[in-house]
Amino acid sequence: MSPRLPFVTGSVWRPSAAGCFTRFVPCLLALLLAAAAAFAGTDNSTATAGKSAPLEVVRVTPSGEDVPPGRQVIFEFNRPVVPLGRMERNASEIPIAFDPPLSCNWRWLNPSTLACQLNQKDATVPATRYRCTIRPGIAAEDGSTLPGELTRTFVTERPRVLETRTKTWLSPGLPQFTLRFNLPVEEKSIAAHLYFRSGPENRVPAEVAEQTEQHEWENWKKGTVWLVKPKTELPGGRDCDLMVEPGIVSTAGPEPGVESKKVNGFRTFPPFRFLGVKCSDLTNKDIFINPDDPASGRLRCNPDHEISVVFSSPVLVDGLREGLRITPDPAKGKPDYDPWEDIGSYSRLSEDRGRKETTYEQQLPELRPFMEYRLQGRAGRITDEFGRGLAKGFDMRLLTDHFPPDFALYKSMPVLEKGLETDAPLLATNLNRIDLSYETLTVDGKSPQRSGTISVSKPLDSMAVVPLGIRKLLAGASGVVKGRFNTHPPVPGKPAADRWFFAQVTPFAVHVKLGHQNTLVWVTDLRTGEPVPDVDVRIYRDTFKAMTALPEFLAQDQTRADGTAALPGTVTLDPDLKLSGSYEADAPHLFVRCRKGPDLAVVPLDFDFRVDAEGSNHDYIPSWQRSRYGHTKAWGATAQGIYKSGGHRPVQDLRERSGQQAFCPRAEGRVCSQGDGSHGQSDL
After folding, report:
1. Is 159 within 8 Å of 194 (Cβ atoms)?
2. How many CB atoms lie within 10 A of CB 207?
3. Percent of the chain with pLDDT over 70
């Protein structure tokens, strides 16, 4: 019968008799002793297991294959081996050997990590297999050692192809490539393990020679760049491969390369054939005209764009012009004119040829608009870059279209001299009319928005020089015209800036030197070159879009007898250079307005009117605008001596600002400033 526990629900247990203590105390002691034995057993087993576990090498770095050569080999153990303190070790203290040998400087990096450190001249070398043998003898702090001899192996990087380029084509089936290796390699091993393949079973040996032209490659090293070509010509018009197989040996180490892959895929040149004509239509859509297509359905080519004949292999101008007859003659009957003279021509044999069939274009001379041409190619007279003559001649018709509508504004900000008959020209092709929208600014104020139309009468496909009529828009007065125009028919692709103009008619030539402290304006007469006195000169902020009649003027002056006026500089007008450095057309700029009587001139201080200083032979003279305080000179000085670190010494702070004629001393005089920028003492 089990003993009843002396607990009663709703009451407190009290030892009512000595018998209860007699049974309870021995049980409690037994439980405590059993628990203590269990904990003791756990500690003992843990300690026993720890002492019995051997020391292990958990990692050796580097490891594996194709690792970069280096100057360190790291051994990491599974527990502390040495205490912190003397970490260097002599080779005699370390039972580790390398094959091939390494001149290790042994050092423990931490209690469980050992390093073999190598001098630069003793670093591991490429293409080498290193075997590391770790013998018993290294003991951990708890006395455990390695259970036996361990061996680890790593292989430094072996030869491999890094890059392939097409050097040239010696013949239609004989390419020459340039190969760059990561390591210098032996010529015999390249020839033995590089080959060409024109089919599954067709292996063509490679012929190699070292590339000695160092300028073609960055970081060129002797023995790393080689010229490779097939020993025999490959069949024409076939997909071929340049292959590499294991076995290429480097001069830096004995381990051969293991690459087995296609280095380059290419297609040999097919027979030399004429393929057709390539051009574009008036919407810039590409057109290809096959000589066998029906003549009645052929599209017309845009004569303003390039028109080319297309062949199966590259053709130079010299190989084309003698065998191609174009009727009517592009020379237009001029005996001293060579239509081929300005046609570009260059060798295409160094271009990469992929698997796709590549075609080659050669530009024709300029052809007249809306004409029918006859192209006749004579067999044997047209030759490609390999000297192969065209096996079959051709005779085809080519149609050109009209020139597309176009225009060009000769100058978007012209300045016209008052009293002459000059104008601002617009160059137009195949346009019917020009619609203007403009505003004028004269001494009488700004006009409302106005419009006008200019008719263009010129034969089709000829260029018309169309005057914009600036003087007429100003009604013969001196002033400014700002406007935009649209053309009929429209000209697609032209940006809005090409349709905008800011023109003026004035008797004044105005030069402005915008300086930091002041601005100098010099006004002369365009007709005589003499200075103009008594001109009212004002600087103001405005935009081209607004062209304000009565802006808020920032400064003003009147020219003296020498035609000059002096006004404040950017430190006053534009201290942060936000206006002077603005390049957007609609952004605020600084403007200079010059007025005398009925005459007006406006100079926008922006990039279009800027003139950079130049030296002899047009050498650029740099100019650097600086914002406010950008020209301030500051330096500090103390009395000569040796000062204690952490002490305080007064420092005199000297500052000067650049005035108009000379340096001006700081008004406040001498100031003692602290190193952190506050006034007082300087920490030294």
Report:
1. no
2. 14
3. 84
